[in-house]
Specification:
The chain is mainly α. The protein folds into two domains: 39 residues; 74 residues, no CATH class. 51% of the residues lie in helices and 0% in strands. The chain is elongated, with a radius of gyration of 26 Å. InterPro entries: AN1-like_Znf, Znf_AN1. This is Syntaxin-like protein. Keywords: Metal-binding, Zinc, Zinc-finger. GO terms for molecular function: zinc ion binding.
């Protein structure tokens, strides 16, 4: 994987050298942004600053928790696996939505007698 990163950087350097005379400011800005984005891997935020902290790399696409927006590795990405603070709120909101829906669909005895 590291070889691919170096090859990508070499290709970017070559492309930027070709275009340098025409679009200097744009290229330098893009190259700087690319280097910043490639600089450090994000780490799993499971139990940060504790003895049980996870040091695995966070997943890029599916590693962000939909509820708390923190980044996690494959083992801790699910809300149930990292003791997500927002999980109980989410469960309560889903319960309330379901309760309202079921109450709206409830059949009343008086409606059945007229049918």
């Amino acid at each position: 994987m590291a070889g691919k990163g170096r090859a990508a950087c070499a290709l970017l350097n070559w492309c930027f050298t070709l275009l340098l005379h025409h679009h200097h400011h744009l290229i330098v800005s893009f190259f700087t942004t690319t280097l910043i984005l490639m600089a450090a891997k994000k780490r799993c935020q499971f139990q940060v600053d504790t003895a049980d902290q996870c040091n695995s790399a966070a997943l890029r696409i599916v590693g962000q928790c939909a509820l708390c927006r923190a980044q996690f590795c494959g083992d801790h990405r699910m809300p149930e696996h990292h003791s997500c603070n927002a999980l109980e709120d989410c469960k309560q909101q889903a319960f309330n939505r379901n309760k309202s829906k079921l109450e709206a669909e409830r059949t009343v005895a008086s409606k059945m007698a007229t049918a």
